[in-house]
Amino acid sequence: MEKDKVQEEAGIETREEEDDESGTKRERESGEIEGGGGEPSRKKRDPEAVSRFKQRSAAWFAKLKEEFERKVAEHPDVDWSDSLAIDASSYRKDWDYVWSQAYGSFDKITPIPPMRYTTADPGPDYASEHDAVQIFCVKIRELRRGLQWPIHVFGLVAARDVIDHNRNIIFNRTRDDCQLLTQEVPYLLLTGPTRAVVVVDPVDFEVALKVKGSIESEDKDLSFLAVQLTRISNISGTHLINKEYTSKLSTLELTFGYIVRSVEATINVRVIDGSWPEEGFSARITAHTSSLKDYRVLLLDSGDEKKMSVTADGMIELSRRVVSVEFEGELEVSVAAFGSNCNYMEAEEKFTPRTMVKARPSLMLAFFGGFNRIPMSHVRSASAAADAASDWQKVRAEWFARFKEEYERKVAEHPDVDWSDELAVDARHYRESWERIYARAYGPFDKSTSIPPMQYTAEPVPFDASEQYTLQIFCVKIKELRRGLQWPIHVFGLIAARDTIDHNRNMVFDRTRDDCQTLTQEDPYLLLTGPTRAVVVCDPVYLEAVLRVKGSTESEDEDLNFFTVPLTDVNRPRETCLITREYTSKLSTLELTFGYVVRSMEATIKARIVDGSWLEEDGSSARFTACTSSLKHNGVLLLDSGDKRRKMRVDADGVVGLSRRVVSVEFEGELEVSVVTFDGSNICSKMEAEIRFVPEEVGESCVELDVGFCKMEITVAWSCLSLSCR
User: How far is CA 316 from each of CA 32, 287, 612, rounded to the nearest angstrom?
Assistant: First the structure.
């Protein structure tokens, strides 16, 4: 894509372009922003290469324009400025063509009920635990184009899996039954799914939400989309995923869990002794699988109405009742009651998924000194359930016998290994496999990647170098200590990513025993220093963690985290998204937050003081962050010199020593770099500047900033990415 030419005049003018269709403005070049000024420095380009690039771009644009004009003529009623809405319209067309003959109309709701295999009768041979998607919440994060809170919302949210390709309704309201959303409470009140959402092929997520106007003709599309909740990896454990989808009028945020090897739990709650007070009491009932204990499915929140619907036979009418639970984990159900006189009572019960399924433990809630018994009738049904009779027991017995034999053999071969830490065992197996497959071609297992950043910043760029899918590591946190380990801890070791470019370590964190980082309960984040180049997604990307806690002597050091896990597989999300995962080892739980960045470039950032000097003796500090525009709430911390552990280094040429400098940026997006400085001589003196860069095919972008006591030059070197090792 041909980029705007650099202005030849002295200084860079900030220029905005207005999209006639959407009215949205986009800053195309960065210049005199927040006190900045100056002329960008660019590398001279090979005229022949530029000419070839322009010819390719012109041909591509001509073809795109022709196709666009044809579609506009065919569908004059479509708003072509909303790309998600366009994709949703295309999705419906494709669905009708492929699936309607077998599964009925596009609007059809799944007829498959929950609890299909709850009974003890043997189920079909293909029934077993399956990976599933659990929708936790749907939030309207932001309103756009002048739309104001509160808003009255109606429409539907649904998931579609390959079981029947029909709508599994998650939210469904008519125009006469709108939900009122406010800036303080922007969450939809979900009522589904009606059965577990099973992951085999990618699950589709469909949204058709509207804002109610004064009359029906004034209703507006709030969010209209159909996207894939792509399968990231089915072997790396249950994890949480956040995604954002920006439509013309709003940004919708979806939080869901990827639950591995799960069964379907259908929950009923019934009052069997006493009665629920008709007035003055509200209830909040939640459930979750044990490995995602911080994220609960809200089954019922009777809220401020202080009234709960109870049938004649004592059954409480839940808003939602289907939850996906890891077969090897636990289902936790919590009931909390709130009284008008500040009375509060909460009870929690844990259920273990089992093959023979009905269990009726009771939860006790105290009301004014009396007790009501409220049993949780927990019904386990596999989305495809395992055989519940003797055949299942026989299969399990044979499997355990083979497993025991293999386990005892490995223990005898490796008496020094702690076989109770499954992640550590898998990490050792990974190393053995890696050395067998890759060592001859790529060197020893401990080798760091020799591929530098800015590989294709200068022309000529090879034909196979282009935008690629990448991973951006945002932060690594020790979330929890286990087995009596106490804060603070002194941590050393490494964290690295491995992609298929060279299969070597791309260092994200690396400290020796003599240079430990001290982690506290208040500040449990590792100070990351990488990656040293962009992490490219082709085949699975692996994350390797070898972290140790320093003891009084070297012999007293302990493994804090030791694992190697895949972060991706060959299935790709369609959109840039944020992913959070947790990995529990013997002594701790590590939390990783990373972004999956689609069609991205590598941006290498440099900061240099060009006028004035850094007032280090006055205690001045700076915080540098960068992000791709579609993940603007999650920045890469390049440097925080306000942290005593990150003293700001400036060399003789004025170059600031950033802790991290490589960021992945969507080619169709923007790179946002933020610099915040604090003048140590005046605690209230703060200067903040944010610069936006539009990615280039090659070369560098440069902007000068005035931060008060000095001027800085921010340079971004752009590089395409190749899947080959050169």
Answer: 62, 15, 70
Q: Which sign, positive or negative, has the C-alpha torsion 471, 475, 480, 481? A: positive
B/e letters for 360-397, b = 16+ CB within 10 Å, e = fewer, are eeebebebeeeebebbbebbbbbbbbbbbeeebeeeee
Where are the strands (E) in 368-415, listed by range? 370-381
Short-list 213, 279, 276, 208, CA closest to 247: 208
Whether the Cβ atoms of residue 656 and residue 648 lie closer than 8 Å to each other? yes
Distance separating the N- and C-terminal Cα atoms of the chain: 25
Q: What is the mean pLDDT of residues 612-623?
A: 71
Between CA 81 and CA 248 the distance in angstroms is: 8
pTM: 0.54
Q: Give the position of tokens 């001290």.
A: 518
According to DSSP, residue 531 is labeled -
Neighbour count for residue 85 (Cβ, 10 Å): 20
> Regarding beta strands 662-666 and 588-612, do their DSSP bridges make them parallel or antiparallel, or are they unpaired?
antiparallel
**pLDDT tens across 60-95, in order?**
667 667 766 776 677 666 666 677 787 888 888 888
Residue 369 has which token pair? Answer: 């000194």
- Give the CA-trace dihedral at 59, 64, 65, 68, to 10 degrees: 170
Tokens of 414: 């490796």
Q: Which residues contact 68 (CB under 8 A, 6 or more apart)?
A: 80
Burial of 236 (0-12, 13-18, 19+ CB in 10 A): buried
Beta bridge partners of residue 344, listed in sequence order: 338
Residues contacting residue 102 through CB under 8 Å, at least 6 positions apart: 165
Q: Are strands 489-498 and 506-511 parallel, antiparallel or unpaired?
A: antiparallel
Cβ pair 605, 661 in contact under 8 A: yes
317 has pLDDT over 80: yes
pLDDT in tens, 120-171: 555 566 677 888 999 999 999 999 888 999 999 999 999 999 888 999 999 9
Which residues sit opposite 350 in a β-bridge? 332
Question: Alpha-carbon distance 690 to 692, whole Å?
Answer: 7
Q: Which two tokens stand for residue 404?
A: 């025991």
DSSP assignment letter at 724: S
| Per-residue model confidence as pLDDT tens digits over 19-46 | 444 343 333 333 334 444 444 444 455 5
Is the pLDDT at 607 greater than 50? The verdict is yes
Cβ–Cβ under 8 Å, residues 2 and 49: no
Q: For residue 303, give the 3-state DSSP assignment.
A: helix
Is the Cβ–Cβ distance between 177 and 154 less than 8 Å? yes
Residue 440: count of CB within 10 angstroms of its CB: 8
Report yes or no: 506 and 498 within 8 Å, Cβ to Cβ: yes
Report the distance separating Cα 488 and Cα 591, nearest Å: 17
CA-based max dimension of the chain: 87
Q: Percent of the chain scored above 90 by pLDDT?
A: 40
Locate 382 and state its tokens: 């596999």
